[in-house]
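Suppose a colleague, Dr. K., hands you the sequence of a protein chain of 550 amino acids and asks what its three-dimensional shape might be. Before reaching for any lab equipment, you can write down a predicted structure in token form. Begin with the sequence itself:
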Amino acid sequence: MARTSFDYIIVGAGSAGSVLANRLSKDPANRVLLIEAGPPDRSIFLHMPGAFAEPLKNDRFNWFYESAPEPFMDNRQMYCPRGRVLGGSSSINGMCYVRGHAFDYDRWASNALPDWSYAHCLPYFRKAETWEKGSDEYRGDSGPLHVSDGPCKNPLYEAFVEAGVQAGYPRTDDMNGHQQEGFGHMQQTTYKGERWSAAKAYLRPALQRENLEVRHSTLTEKILFDGKRATGVIISRNGRRETVTGGEIILSGGAINSPQLLMLSGIGHASHLAEHDIPVVADLPGVGANLQDHLEIYVQMGCRQPITLYSALSLVGRAKIGLEWLLFRRGPGASNLFESGGFIRSEAGVEHPDLQYHFLPIAISYDGRAAGDRHGFQAHVGPMRPTSRGHVRLKSADPASHPEILFNYMSTEQDRKEMRAAVRLTREIFAQQAFGPFRDGELAPGEDVQSDNEIDAFVRSHGESAYHPSCTCAMGSGEQAVVDGELKVHGLESLRVVDASVMPTIPSGNLNAPTIMIAEKAADIILGNPALPVSGAAVWQHPDWQISQR
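The predicted structure, expressed as tokens, is then:
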């Protein structure tokens, strides 16, 4: 008979949930249940890095969310994929390993969260990773998460870095180390040619533990309470409902699913819950509020040399890449293909980079659904600290129904200003001598798009999410805060949230690494372990940031 009572129940087997399942079950005295709505991660497309666009195009391993019509984006419904599989979004993401900037975490700390400064978080970044180049005061070499440079040597990657330097920006040898600002090679969560998801890094090594039970393809419908204490959850699989009880309930469903489950369980803005006849357990207006994401635009150029990945789009090209990967775990199939990038400031007076680049040696959409018709290359670029705010709300009290998601992209003049700068600065970088042998005309936005109004219109019609939803169950102590510094839900007992939703503000970069860090730190908090020693590592800041853009 299946066990129905546990010490810890973790909802969601993604980047955070996999970490927690491993760390909490390490003590054999702890009985841990991990619940995942999606299936096991058995598809080849989940393990071949170069095939990451495939699970983004279907709903087999993906919640396949869309936003409500975005009022500042020509009322487009914006695609928002989220992992629904063991490993969560770490099993379908672009595998970019980016921590964000040190000042992001210091900003968290300044909001009554002193234990979440960079000095407090850096030891947990180090604990989580094995960096292929070895450890130093910034990098780790003994963690479950393998991090590597990309294996491909396409000359366009280095051309992008060199063009950034020629444009006056610094080169950085490690954008996750001492100096984020500048251009350099990007790192990825791959190992021996395979995606290294949180499921591989953390969950798989723990599956043989008798005290850890994983239930996949199982939907969590509701959290149960005795007064203000969370006591268990109602789950369903194949139409069969079951109640399981736990000493502590931990939500790790991510920025969309965690607030949805809280609201379904009576935790959220009281007036919104009343709209769906849900009895109020805790009136917390911040649940589902404060939604933040990175919006990006693609600046695309034609390439006069046939060295891009355009040839890989053919059936024969795909077959060659797939065969090389299957036989040897090498070639383009062994890379996420984002092997160079950069971080710059949009103008003088910005303390640290607010624009991020991912460079790709092909002209194509992120999810692979819209490809160019010729050889080309592109830079993905967008503001890193958007001031626009959205929300996640219920459309129905049915747990199987998707919630309403509204990002409100580009709703502020500041975000529009930064995006205009992003387009213009990218054009300047592509105009540098390093791209002279390759550059063959601008494909997008196009040379006729020059004025503020023209760039704004292009962003409205072509901007895409970078797939970084966050901040909908924010840490803090204010009116909009949902959890405290120990990730406990305000006003309730035995209930925590541990995932990207607890970020007060979105970090300046990709979110997988920060989410794993949060879970590593949370595990020590939950277990009552002493925190890792605070780091004294220095942080680089441009010496002339107040008066110079570069």
